Each structure stands twice: as C-alpha cells, then as structure tokens.
Amino acid sequence: MKTKPLIVCGIVAVMVVAYAISTASNLRHRAKANRTVAALKSLPLERLTTAAHGFARDHKVNDRVVTLGSLLSAGYLRPEDVRGLEGEDVSISLTANETTPSAVLVRVRESNRFDVVLRSDGSIAMEARR
What SS3 class is residue 64? Predict the structure, then answer.
C-alpha cells in the first residue's frame, strides 16, 4: 500500500519537470523573437531593398526572394547594416512593395513552427510556418 503514494509523487515530479522544461523553452524562444523584432525595427529598409534588387539584377536571380547571407557575402550589405540578424535564416522578398502593405518584405525563420515577418507597411508579426 505504501507504493501508491510513491508512484503518485513520482508522476507529479515528472509532470513538474516537464512543465519547467516547456516553460524554459518557451521563454528562450520568446527572448530570441524579441531580439529579432528589435533587429527588424532597426533595419535600413531602403538600403536592404536596394541591395536585394541590385543583387537579383546582377546575378540574374529568378527566385522571388534573396537571402541575407547572399547579400552579405556578395558585399551588397555590411554586417553593421543588419545587426542582430547575423547567422539567422533571413529572406528578403523581391516582389513586396508599398502597393501591397500586407506582403512579407523580410522573413526570419525563428523555429520549426514560427517565423517573424516584417511587412511592407512596416508592421512586424509572428506567423505560423507554411
């Protein structure tokens, strides 16, 4: 009969540990997303879009997006232009513009489920991965 309370305590302990791990993971993802939002707010958008279109023209890019890594490695942007986004999976749309305010201009892949996006109208949102 004494094993029953021990089993219940063990189950409760496992649930508490699982909750703590889940909470810590969510806090880490939220902190990373907050840093990404701050970096997106400080982006020089005109320089970014000019660089993306120049790269696409010069390299005959047929895709609808250009990666930030391509712009940096080809010298179209400097690392100080994109502080806070170093090492991130960032894509810049070649088709988004002010005539389509809800179009995604910059997409930063945050996790397996979510991206942080900067829209043409300057708004920033978290978006479920498609």
Answer: coil
